[in-house]
Design a protein that fits this description.
Elements: H1 7-17, E1 22-26, E2 32-36, E3 39-44, E4 49-53, H2 56-64, E5 69-70, E6 79-83, H3 87-109, H4 123-130, H5 134-140
Length: 147
Amino acid sequence: MIRRNSPLVERLIREAGSWPGVTVGDHRFGGTEFLVASREIGHVHGWGMLDVNFLRRLRDVLVDADLTGVHHLLTDSGWTTFMLRTEADYDRARWLLRLSYLYQVSVLQKRADGTEPYAAVDVAAELRKLDPPEAVRAAFERRSAPA
């Protein structure tokens, strides 16, 4: 029996795959992975489990803000798990994956090599569009949040 991706998962794969410099492929544990350069920003399983990679500090802030959950297996890492089940979940799933994408692009833009696919991405403007809570923005920018 061939298991097909849910329509919401297919939509997320199409959208994230259209972002500049994202490579979409098969994930080693099943599902579809999203790479920026050689860095995995996340992967989604056909039934809707989305695992997204963040720095541990950023992951902790996202979990504390109840924007995602700790990864179902890798609890001491920066990985998160979010369930994409309904149309209402789609925007959050996209938001989380886009935040990870923007973080990795911001890192690559600071390097001298291999940044061409990401040069046109305005990380600051895109982050403003995501409108993250201040604590999330501070963790993204690797600075302390105001007290």
